[in-house]
Amino acid sequence: xxxxxxxxxxxxxxxxxxxxxxxxxxxxxxxxxxxxxxxxxxxxxxxxxxxxxxxxxxxxxxxxxxxxxxxxxxxxxxxxxxxxxxxxxxxxxxxxxxxxxxxxxxxxxxxxxxxxxxxxxxxxxxxxxxxxxxxxx
Length: 137
Fold this sequence. Notes:
Elements: H1 8-18, E1 24-26, H2 36-49, E2 52-56, E3 59-65, E4 72-74, H3 78-88, E5 93-95, H4 97-103, E6 114-118, E7 128-129, E8 132-136
Parallel strand pairs: 6-8
Antiparallel strand pairs: 1-3, 2-3, 3-4, 5-6, 7-8
Helix pairs in contact: 1-2
């Protein structure tokens, strides 16, 4: 019995399902499957199908269905996706000073918003989902 060759979309979807070490994917993760434009088009289609959600330019996160709306949402909290994405992009993210103060018990104020401290080069990448946006300090 001859087997039909897998399409690029099938190969990308299989890699996403098998990869457990990260919830964030960049377009370059799938460069071995085809040209830049082809991979981007297939990632957009997979996002439309609900396997992925777009969280930034060339950044996609593994998705799950919302129990409230049934729409795809990131499978991890946005702040965790932000940390993973920044590591994938070559930055070294750390918790913001407000988060550190709260975790160490120096304050009772829960940090508002999603803020990540990044040392070194300025981060120009916008990481967001819906109305929530990662801010950098």
